Amino acid sequence: MDPKQLTRQLMDFNKSAFDQSYKMIKILHDQTENIVLRFLERSNWITEDGKKVVKEWAKVCKKGSEYFKDCADENYKKIADYYTRSENKKKT
């Protein structure tokens, strides 16, 4: 088997595993955020400023997670493009 083809298959598997793991982590993050926000709504002893800080922190975490996913997707796309170009050169 061609090493480039094997490497491409491994990268495809790796991307699939990453995508599934990211989806599970996102579900866990969303559920945790819902629990925390419900807790904040019912907590009289937490100040409004404290609630605002926690909500802002949740937004920052979500943006960071989305940025990480976008970067990973972009890099997987670069790798796929590299192997596509490499396969096209091999055919010609």
How far apart the termini lie comes to: 19 Å
Form type: rod-shaped
Percentage of β-strand residues:
under 5%
**Largest sheet report:** none
Give the number of helices: 2
Whole-angstrom Rg: 21 Å
Give the beta-strand count: 0
Mean pLDDT metric: 91
Structural class: mainly alpha
Which residues form runs of ≥5 with pLDDT under 50? Answer: none
Structural overview:
The chain is mainly alpha-helical and 92 residues long. The protein is 91% helix and 0% strand. The mean pLDDT is 91.
Report a brief summary of the structure:
This protein has 92 residues and is an all-alpha fold. It has helices spanning 3-42, 48-91.
Topology:
Elements: H1 3-42, H2 48-91
Helix pairs in contact: 1-2
Question: Which tags fit this structure?
Answer:
mainly alpha
